[in-house]
Amino acid sequence: MRQNFLYDALVVTNKVDPELRGGVQARIIGETDEIDDDAQYFVRPDMTCLNAVPEKGYYLKVYFIDGDIRQGRYVAVSPSKDGFLDYNYTAKNSYPNVAVYNLGGDGFMRYYDRAKQMSTIDCPNGGHIVWDGESKILMTSDKAYTNAGNGANNNEGVPEHAVLTEASIDIFTAMPVGKGVLNQGSEYLTIPHVSTKTIEAYNNPTAENRSNEPSVIVEGDPSATFLPIHDANGKTVDEVELSLTRNYISRFDKKIDKIIIGISDSKTFPEMADEFMKEGSQSSAHYLVGQIEGDPEIASESKTGILNNSGFLQFVQLDQDAYYASGVEYNDEAANKNAVSIVLVASENPLSTIGSYSAYQKSMVKKLIAHIRAEAKDDTIPVINASDLVGRPSLPKMTVTFE
Q1: Cα(372)–Cα(36) distance, rounded to whole angstroms?
Q2: Binning pLDDT at 50, 70 and 90, where does residue 11 land?
Q3: Which residues have a Cβ under 8 Å from the Cβ of 343 and sit 6 or more positions away?
Q4: Cβ distance 229 to 240 under 8 Å?
Q5: Residue 393 has pLDDT above 90, yes or no
Q6: Among the listed ranges 7-16, 61-70, 193-202, which one has the minimum average pLDDT value?
Q7: What is the largest CA-CA distance in the chain?
């Protein structure tokens, strides 16, 4: 594609962008007319203002970074071919210092000051967030408690507090109380960050909360995205939480021709999930199925070091390839090409702390096989054990078949 050139494009579908960045699949008029609609490349927004993702049938003005067809960016949207605002009106150079986003009519506004590299967000619930050029975050709320500990009882303190970026993350990954000593379980939290109420609760635990052991289960996230699992007749029989990774191979012409089932062997559910989500790891599978039903488990402090390995996640959309089995071959080509991979947290080694195949896993594999075949509209897609594939490194041995 030409660089520094605006192409006309037509939105052919606005199904879920695998990167969740407002992308749509669009036909580049005069360039990709011969490609099927569901195989068109995604183009993503680069606009001063965007109220909503463009719908199917809308027209776009698109450019390509470095002329790469996989890096299309749309800078203008119109419901008709000739209804665009003049590009000089919407371009960055006409409004160089501030970008304004109004997400619908619900009062959510975002302003970005390019010169100061500072974002300001006004929320419809009365909150106000400033994210400055040094990545410090300041939040204001007239409704929430304005102080921690005893201050929450009488609403003392100021309504604005800086958010400790690393410490905020650390709260969810480490205990403020560890090894029986206050403030020994966290890399970032210090004594001033632990409220009086927390200290009192630790020194004088109530009857309902006498355990100092941390939970190893993540509570359900109400904002999580779930996708339906269908049977051969299209009926929804289950659902899977979507946790999209960037570790995948983009395909615009994928036709699913096999289902590969593998096992984690010595690795736990959180270890596999972390590996699939780690940026640049080139390790991923479409599905990860834990030993038991429940919220996805995370690595956390545990006296025994043994986890329940609960969880069920999808990391890669079915129309893209995961990296699992990319080092082995099937019919003289990389096995992961046009495949859907399912990894079970299981081991056939009797000495492993990871259990063998559970009834829950066998049930979910059966559902997933039916679902994948239904999505591909092909009930003859073969199911292959990963350890039967040829190549190096060899994948963990499996003697159980699932069909």
Answers
A1: 21
A2: very high
A3: 261, 262, 263, 264, 272, 285, 287, 288, 289, 324
A4: yes
A5: no
A6: 193-202
A7: 73
- Among 186-195, 278-287, 356-365, the least confident range: 186-195
CATH of the domain at 77: 2.40.50.230
Of the listed ranges 58-62, 132-136, 165-169, 383-387, the least confidently predicted one is: 165-169
Residue 191 lies in a domain: no
Does residue 269 form part of some domain? yes
Q: In this structure, is residue 200 part of a structural domain?
A: no
Q: Which residue reads 């956390």 in tokens?
A: 300
Look at residue 277 and tell me if it is in a domain.
yes
Our count of domains for the chain comes to 2
CA 60 to chain centre: 27
Tell me the whole-structure pTM to 2 decimals.
0.47
Alpha-carbon span 180 to 188, nearest angstrom: 18
Q: Which residue, 57, 72, 90, sits at the end of a domain? A: 90
- In this prediction, residues 355-375 reach a mean pLDDT of 94
> What is the mean predicted confidence (pLDDT) over 162-178?
45
Rounded mean pLDDT, 69-82: 87
Task: Give the type of residue at 299.
Answer: A
CATH code, 299: 3.40.80.10
Q: Which of 30, 59, 90 is the last residue of a domain?
A: 90
Give pLDDT, residue 207.
45
| Cis amide linkage into residue 45, ω under 30° from 0 | no
Bridge-based pairing of strands 236-242 and 312-314 is parallel
Domain housing 65: 7-90
DSSP per-residue string spanning 174-216: S-SEETTEET-S-SS--GGGS-HHHHHHHHS--TT----PPP-
